[in-house]
Amino acid sequence: MADWIQHLMNSMGYLGIVLLMVLENLFPPIPSELIMPSAGFAASRGKLNLALVIASGTLGSVLGTLPLYYIGRAFGEKRVIGWADKYGKWLTLSGKDVKYADDWFDEHGSKAVLFGRLIPGVRSLLSLPAGMSEMPLPKFLLYSALGSGLWTAALAGAGYLLGEHYDRVEQYLGPISKVVLVGLVAAAVWFFLKRKRGHTES
């Protein structure tokens, strides 16, 4: 995959970075932890400009958030609550649980989008609840751009400094992203079981 990413950037330049980061948001197996350090390495060799690499990565990352955001918007809170009340018992999920989660996102959504863009394994998933909770698009884009800008700058900077060893960034962050994802799934299961127990006791 590293060779394919390098080839695409060599042939398409900054547009290739934009396209790769769009795909990274839609297909998480394409990791930004490999794309941006590779672009930073290209900048260290003088083939690309580091500032434009970061800008391209940020633009692609923000554009990549929009499909899931609009899917969440299209489904909306009411549809998901209705689905949860009808089928969610198999997942110990109720409409009240969805409403609670949506209310939480309404209150903390800006911070969730901003800091969530810095967490591997979470970045691509945040757009869905943001759309479901009908976060205003300008606000969503602003916090997505800020978080994504910090993330792409850190990765591209690491690739720039590491040079030919840029792939070490993905080697270190890849396992971390898997641990984070497993931890979030475990936390979600614990949350729903706890609420289910609370409903049973009441």
Automatic annotation (TrEMBL):
<keyword id="KW-1003">Cell membrane</keyword>
<keyword id="KW-0472">Membrane</keyword>
<dbReference type="Pfam" id="PF09335">
    <property type="entry name" value="VTT_dom"/>
</dbReference>
<feature type="transmembrane region" description="Helical">
    <location>
        <begin position="12"/>
        <end position="30"/>
    </location>
</feature>
<feature type="transmembrane region" description="Helical">
    <location>
        <begin position="140"/>
        <end position="163"/>
    </location>
</feature>
<keyword id="KW-1133">Transmembrane helix</keyword>
<protein>
    <submittedName>
        <fullName>Membrane protein DedA, SNARE-associated domain</fullName>
    </submittedName>
</protein>
<feature type="transmembrane region" description="Helical">
    <location>
        <begin position="50"/>
        <end position="71"/>
    </location>
</feature>
<feature type="domain" description="VTT">
    <location>
        <begin position="30"/>
        <end position="160"/>
    </location>
</feature>
<keyword id="KW-0812">Transmembrane</keyword>
<feature type="transmembrane region" description="Helical">
    <location>
        <begin position="175"/>
        <end position="193"/>
    </location>
</feature>
<dbReference type="InterPro" id="IPR051311">
    <property type="entry name" value="DedA_domain"/>
</dbReference>
<dbReference type="GO" id="GO:0005886">
    <property type="term" value="C:plasma membrane"/>
</dbReference>
<dbReference type="InterPro" id="IPR032816">
    <property type="entry name" value="VTT_dom"/>
</dbReference>
